[in-house]
C-alpha cells in the first residue's frame, strides 16, 4: 500500500463494520466524503423564514432515568420512512452540552457551536446525500461533562433537539418517538490535571471507554434497539417564536460553519520499549501486532503541534488497556522542556484517555472532544488475547479559515515566522478563538483582539470575529463590564479587557463597512466607559482603586500580571489604556452621529493623558513611571503613554528609544510586544520592527512549531497572542493600513528595516491589495502596487507621498 493511499486501509474495516461490528463506520466512513469534498456535513444553509418565524413543534428530549446535570454520554435514534428522496431534507440540530450527528451511519456534523444560554446555537444540515428510499435512521451521540466540563462550556442540563425545516423533514422532530440509551461505557478520567501538572488546565476530562459495554453499530440502520427506551420530553421546553425556551435555552442559528476535518498522518515514531516498533503502522501500511500478556510503550511524533481527534483502530485484545497521553512537548527530570525536537532523557505527562478493547474487529477509539498535541504516547498492556493496531492517525479539526494573504522577502528566515504564526493562529481558532488550545481553550479579549486582526488581514472570513465581539457583549455583568473571557461557566472579570473589547469594535470599524453590526453595541461602550469614569480619582485625574483582576501582562514585575497601582489606585498603565480607548470610543460615537458623547470622551482622554504625564513622567529618565511615586518603571507605561498621546511630540522619539534600550524596565512579554509595535509605528520608528523579531526566531530555534505564551519557561507552547507576526508582517513591514472607516482608503507606509525586498498580498471584500517593493540606491524604493476596485489612498516613503488609485501602479521614489 502506498503512502498517498492512506485512506484505503480503512476499506476492509468499513466492510466488516457494515456487517455489524459497528463504531468504525460511525466515525471513519465519512472520511472518504471529507477527503473527496473537503467538507464535513452541510453548512451555511438558507433557513425557511416561514417556519422560523413561528414556533417549532419539536421538543427537547433526554434519556429517561438519567441525571439532567451529571456526567453522562447518551445515544438517540429515530427510524423513519421515505417514499422518495426529496431535493432537500434540512434539519436544525442542537444539544446540551454537545452532539455528533449521523444519518444511516454517515457522520454528518457536530455542535452546537459554543455560546451561552441567551444565545444557544443550533446547526442546520441538508442530509439529503445520506438518505435513501425506504427506511432511514437519524442518530446522535450526546454528552454532558457535568462538573468535569471545560470552563468554556456553559450548560443548563442534558438535552437534545432536532427540528425539520418543512413538513416532510419534520418527521424527525424530537419527541417521545425517538429512542434513547445511556452509554455506561464512558467514564471521565484525567480529572485532576491542574494538580498533577501544577498549572491551570480547564479543557475537560479524558475519556475512559470500556469497549465491552459500548453499543457497537448503534448508528447503523440494522442495529437492534429493542432494549432502548422511548426518549423523555423535557418539561417546559416547547420552542416558541424567537426560539426562546422557558428557563433553559434561547436558540440562535449558528453564525459559523462546521470545523475543518482533514485526515492527518503522524510523522514518525520517536521511540518504543521494550521492543522496536517501525513507522509502518502509523503510515497506514501495516498493522502492529502485540502478543498476549505483553506490554509496549510507543512515543509518536506528529512533527508539528496540532489540534485533532485522534483515531485509534484496533482488533482483538480483549482485556487490554491502551493509554493515550497527549503533550505539546516532553520534559526532562527538572521539568524543563528544552528543545522541543529532542526526546532523549525526557518523559511525557498530560491529558490522557483510556480505552479497553472488547476483542472485536476494527474497533475505533476516538475521544469525544479535540486533543492538542505534538507528541502522543501509547501505553499498551495486553491480557490473554493478542492486540492488533490496525491504524493510528488524527482528524485535524479547526475553524475552516482559508489564508488568502501572502508574504515573502529576501530574508528566507521570515518565511518560517510567517508560517508558524499562521499555524499558531489556526490552532487557536475553533468554535471560538482560543487563548491556547492545550490548557484553556478560552476566549479572552486580550488574545482575541490580536487574533481578530490576524483574521481580517489574512482571510475573507469575518464570521468568527463577529461571533467573538457578540460573545463578549453577551458576557456583560451588572456593573456594565464584560467578562474577561467568554463563553465561560466561571465568572471572571478583568476590567482592562473590557477596554480591549471596545478596541476590537474600533478595529472592526476601521477594516469593514458593517455599520449596522457596530451601532448595536454603542450603548454598551458607553456603559463600560461610565464604569471607568466612576473610578477616576478627581484629586489626581487618574484611576483610583479598582476591584476584580486588573491583568495587564505576564511580566515578573507585575504580581499576577497586575501593574502597580491597579488595585489600590493611580496606575499609569491602565489610566493611559483608558485614555486610548476613550479616543477610540469617540471615533465611533462621532461616526454614528453621537457628537456630544464623542466630545465628552475626547475631553476626558485629554485630561487623563495630561495628568498621567504630570504625575508620573520622569524627565530625567525620559520614561513613564507605573505610579506617581515613581518607584517602578516599565516598558508598558511608556508604550501606553505614547499611544495615548501623553508624551509631547518633541519627546516621543527619545521615549521610544528608552523603551528599547533601558533593560532595567519591566519588559513587555510576547503579548505586549503587539503594543510595542504600535508605538514603533506611531513614532515613525517602525523600521526597527524587523530587529525586534529575535524572540520569534529563538522559539523556532528551540524546536517550537507554534509560538509560546511567554519566554521560557513557558506553560503553553501555542498561544494566540504570540501569533502577531501574521498581522505585523503586513501591517508593519508592508505598512498596509486602513486610513478611514470601513477601509475605504488605504495608507501604505512600508518599514523594511534590514530587508531589501518584499512581496505581499492582503485580501479585502472587494478584492486584494498586492505589492512588490525593492530598495533602490541609498534611500529610494521602486515596485508595483495593485489595489482593488474603489480603493485609493497614499503611499509614503521617507516623508515622500504618492497618491494611489484602484488598479496597478508603479512606485518610484
Question: Can you tell me about this structure?
Answer:
The chain is of the alpha+beta class and 813 residues long. Among the domains are: 3-20 and 261-396, Sandwich (Jelly Rolls), CATH 2.60.120; 41-183 and 215-253, Jelly Rolls (Sandwich); 535-692, Glycosyltransferase (Alpha/alpha barrel). It is built from 17 helices and 36 strands. The strands form eight sheets. Strands 10, 11, 15, 16, 17, 18, 19, 20, 21, 22 and 23 form an eleven-stranded mixed β-sheet that branches. A six-stranded antiparallel β-sheet has the order 5-4-7-2-9-12. Strands 24-31-32-33-36 form a five-stranded antiparallel β-sheet, with helices on one face. A hairpin with a 4-residue loop joins strand 25 (536-537) and strand 26 (542-543).
Which SSEs are present, and which pair or pack?
Elements: H1 11-21, H2 23-37, H3 49-52, E1 56-62, E2 72-82, E3 90-96, E4 98-103, E5 106-111, E6 120-126, E7 134-144, E8 159-164, E9 179-182, E10 186-189, H4 193-197, E11 206-210, E12 229-230, E13 232-239, E14 251-253, E15 262-264, E16 268-273, E17 288-290, E18 295-316, E19 321-327, E20 352-356, E21 363-365, E22 371-381, E23 387-396, E24 406-409, H5 413-427, H6 445-458, H7 463-474, H8 495-511, H9 515-519, H10 522-533, E25 536-537, E26 542-543, H11 572-591, H12 595-616, E27 617-618, E28 623-624, H13 635-643, H14 652-661, H15 673-682, H16 694-701, H17 725-733, E29 736-738, E30 745-748, E31 757-764, E32 767-776, E33 780-787, E34 792-797, E35 800-804, E36 807-812
Parallel strand pairs: 6-14, 11-20, 30-34
Antiparallel strand pairs: 1-13, 2-7, 2-9, 3-6, 3-8, 4-5, 4-7, 9-12, 10-11, 15-23, 16-18, 17-23, 18-21, 18-22, 18-23, 19-20, 19-22, 24-31, 25-26, 27-28, 29-30, 31-32, 32-33, 33-36, 34-35
Helix pairs in contact: 1-2, 6-7, 6-8, 6-17, 7-8, 8-11, 10-11, 11-12, 11-13, 13-14, 13-15
